[in-house]
Design a protein that fits this description.
The protein has about 600 residues and is of the alpha+beta class. Helix content is about 40%, strand content about 10%. It folds into three domains: about 5-50 and about 90-160, PH-domain like, CATH 2.30.29.230; about 255-430, Helicase, Ruva Protein, domain 3 (Orthogonal Bundle); about 430-570, Cyclin A, domain 1 (Orthogonal Bundle), CATH 1.10.472. It has helices at about 130-135, 175-185, 185-190, 195-200, 275-285, 290-300, 310-330, 335-340, 340-355, 370-385, 395-405, 410-425, 435-450, 450-460, 470-475, 480-495, 500-510, 515-520, 525-530, 540-555, 560-565, 580-600, 600-605; strands spanning about 10-20, 30-40, 45-50, 90, 95-100, 110-115, 125, 140-145, 150-155, 255, 605. One of its GO terms (cellular component) is cytoplasm. Keywords: Acetylation, Cytoplasm, GTPase activation, Phosphoprotein. This is TBC1 domain family member 15.
């Protein structure tokens, strides 16, 4: 059934002044396209101005013209596109969900998602009408409001028993989408370039990074969401009230000086007397350059905090032997053997390519035949022997280079790298489950902090925050100067004030760009371009101050949503009562509380 043939059926609803944002510049074509929305029988359609009537073929139930009503939206989100057109139609039986958002300026937009899991381009209603559209849709489908996000509605046929099912079925990625993601990210392409490969995969699958911001008890006050059948309030033309979160003022945070004292924290045998205090001072101001070589080995787990000076000598001797045993394994492989080991050959090729272009502006790695490049290569090859399941993935050279620069030692840099990889190794796994989870958690935090910014990103097809992928993959290595990244990483290695502080750093950066993003005529491509151009333009102290202030603001909120609490490590789902896990969890909680007094930035931060 073509779009021009919708006239043969009963017209249920029609509204002009609807604009589709394509988010893809085609030559000189405008990316904001005017048109109108139409509901005919059990079909919803957007028809671009000037395209109606192009197909004059008479309706024939057995004939499918070019403008075919589709049952599965194409993955490139250009549903039923003909030539340069952007009109589309979708049977209501194929509508999976509908999400409505509204900017503070008053514009409303809807995002429709098909049962295939693919969102259509956002529809912007410049003249209102979303409420009337929903009433028209309810003649044929049930719109079930999410108990977790008042702007998200799942669509069910009137005769469906699916309404009794849990909203948990709305996953980050359903099975089909996850399969599409895995198909899109082949193993070899991922190993060579996880950023570009995964970014491409994200563009082909559903990106349901919609935060669930309602706390467990959300029946009162401004959090109650209206049913679409109720009359609208005076200041809200279309049918749903936005869920707002009263966070309270954001405190001003002062950072401290770098830690420049070490000996006073050691007892006569060389043990660190107060590790929590050390971590707090490092979090507050970083480490003075002369002390980094020693302290990084503690922060990255090479040396235990309670080890004596003599024990550390023994550890170094043992770890040196172990390192060179692993190094000999790959050094002793002959060329003939390597020709029959494609995996090792592939790792070596990738490492040689990446080493030749890692931090070459730094004098430690600059020039040809630089011994620093040889060390970088050898440590990465040895890591493949240490963790052959993971091997080498592009980006690991970025993690090693600063560590090698600080330690100036092959063995120590290797074991510090293994400690670093314990924190981030899941970022490099082929499944990318950890990266998907972190992007979801980032969207949860950002929506709690700035729902308007999230709505804007949603409207520009950027709500997945996939442009932050590189930030999280290698911990902002390419966003800050080499010297700044040394400070940023040692702050993150303290694991204060929470395990996901790197996500708060991402929020701090995004909020610093809020005015530029919302205040300009950005689409998906220009948002990505703007984010990439932030490289080397960020002030690390301002970003860290902003991230800590965000943490304090969120943790002081009396009604913080449960999912935000989980991201910040403030709440863990309880285990069944009486189980060993529940008893262990209670013990861990008591221990955490006993340590919090000396290391929690809420008590140690110097506030203006």
């Amino acid at each position: 059934m073509g779009l021009t043939h919708l006239w043969f059926f009963q017209l249920i609803f029609e509204k002009e002044g609807v604009y589709l944002h394509t988010n893809a510049k085609k030559m000189l074509q405008d990316t904001t396209l005017p048109g109108f929305i139409r509901v005919v029988e059990r079909v919803i359609a957007f028809i671009q101005d000037g395209e109606e009537g192009e197909d004059d073929t008479k309706f024939d139930p057995g004939y499918e013209p070019d403008w075919a009503v589709i049952s599965t939206v194409k993955k490139d989100q250009q549903a039923a596109v003909k030539d340069s057109g952007w009109s589309f139609s979708l049977p209501l039986s194929e509508l999976y969900s509908l999400r409505r958002a509204r900017f503070s300026l008053g514009r409303n937009f809807l995002v429709l998602t098909s049962r295939g899991g693919h969102p259509l381009p956002p529809l912007h209603f410049h003249r209102g009408g979303t409420r009337e559209l929903l009433r028209a849709l309810q003649r044929y489908i049930i719109l079930d409001q999410s108990p977790m996000d008042g702007r998200l509605f799942l669509a069910y046929p009137h005769d469906s028993g699916a309404l009794s099912q849990s909203f948990d079925k709305l996953q980050l990625m359903d099975d089909d989408a996850a399969a599409g993601f895995n198909d899109a990210v082949s193993e070899q392409r991922f190993i060579q370039d996880p950023y570009a490969t995964t970014f491409g995969g994200f563009s082909k699958v559903t990106n349901f990074f919609k935060a669930a911001l309602r706390p467990p008890d959300s029946t009162g006050g401004s959090r109650a969401c209206r049913d679409p059948g109720l009359p609208p309030q005076a200041d809200d033309e279309p049918g749903f009230e936005l869920i707002t979160l009263e966070l309270g003022p954001r405190p001003d945070v002062c950072r401290g000086p770098p830690l420049d004292r070490w000996e006073e924290f050691l007892d006569p045998e060389g043990r660190v007397k107060n590790p929590e205090r050390i971590r707090d001072l490092v979090f507050r101001g970083g480490i003075a350059p002369p002390l980094r070589k020693e302290l990084w080995k503690f922060l990255l787990g090479f040396y235990p905090w309670n080890s004596t000076a003599k024990e550390r000598e023994d550890i170094l001797r043992s770890k040196t032997d172990e390192y060179f045993r692993m190094k000999v394994q790959w050094k002793s492989v002959s060329e003939e053997q390597e020709m029959r080991n494609s995996l090792l050959r592939g790792y070596r090729s990738l490492i040689e390519r990446d080493v030749s272009r890692t931090d070459r502006h730094n004098t430690f790695f600059s020039g040809n035949d630089n011994p620093g490049l040889t060390l970088l290569h050898d440590v990465l090859m040895t890591y493949c022997m240490y963790n052959f399941d993971l091997g080498y993935v592009q980006g690991m050279s970025d993690l090693l280079a600063p560590v090698l620069f600080v330690t100036q030692n092959e063995v120590e840099s290797f074991w510090c790298l293994t400690g670093f990889m314990e924190l981030v190794h899941q970022n490099f796994e082929e499944s990318q489950e950890a990266m998907k989870q972190q992007l979801l958690q980032l969207s949860i935090l950002l929506r709690a902090l700035d729902p308007e910014l999230c709505d804007f990103l949603d409207s520009q097809d950027s709500g997945s925050l996939c442009f932050c992928f590189r930030w999280l993959l290698i911990w902002f290595k390419r966003e800050f100067s080499f010297e700044d990244i040394l400070l940023l990483w040692e702050v993150l290695w303290t694991r204060l004030p929470c395990e996901n502080f790197h996500l708060l750093i991402a929020c701090s950066i995004l909020e610093s760009q809020r005015g530029e993003l919302i205040g300009s005529d950005h689409d998906f491509n220009t948002i990505l371009k703007h984010i990439n151009e932030l490289t080397m333009k960020l002030d690390v102290e301002e970003v860290l101050q902003g991230a800590e202030a965000i943490y304090l603001q969120l943790t002081r909120c009396q009604d913080l949503p449960l999912k935000v609490q989980q991201v910040l490590g403030l709440y863990s789902p309880p285990s069944p009562e009486g189980s060993p896990e529940s008893q262990t969890g209670e013990t861990d909680h008591v221990l955490d509380q006993s340590q919090a007094g000396s290391s929690d930035p809420q008590t140690s931060a110097e506030l203006k």
